[in-house]
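Data card: per-record layout.
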Amino acid sequence: MISIRYMPHRGRFLLLTLLIWIGYFCYFYFALFAFEATRDLPLSVASIAFAMSSMSVIVPVQAGMGAWHAAVIITFTTFGMAVQPAKDFALIVHTAQTLWITLWASSRSSLFPSSIDTTRADAPHQLRACAEHNYPLFILRTNRLWLLKSRPCSPAQCGATS
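The structure for this 162-residue chain is written out next.
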């Protein structure tokens, strides 16, 4: 939280973060109405399931697969839903959400900002310079993915003095 205090455009960052979370909750909540078993769940149960599913993405697995499903299924069954409709909801909603995010993001990849101009001749040199300072770097731009693995560097390489 301290880093937000010093970040440029922090108001815009906080607003966009809030809007993303509101959109994420609305997506989850409105998906409840698409299933017979979840249609009549109260807002409180939906909120708890949403909170549990949001916390489940902390588990280090790709796209929350398995952990997200388990959190939703356990929450719904705790509040009296049968297991199979809870599994159906978790599988369909997570799959639709993951596909939507993947397709939307890949169609917008040219809009992602980049601090390094990958069209310049010295772009690979700039990427190496970032990696030497141990910064993991992913740049998605104009349908090209530049990935340089982060690796530790010696103090001499990083420009540190003793």
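Known properties of this structure: The radius of gyration is 21 Å. Residues 129-153, 157-162 have pLDDT under 50 and may be disordered.

See the next section for split statistics.
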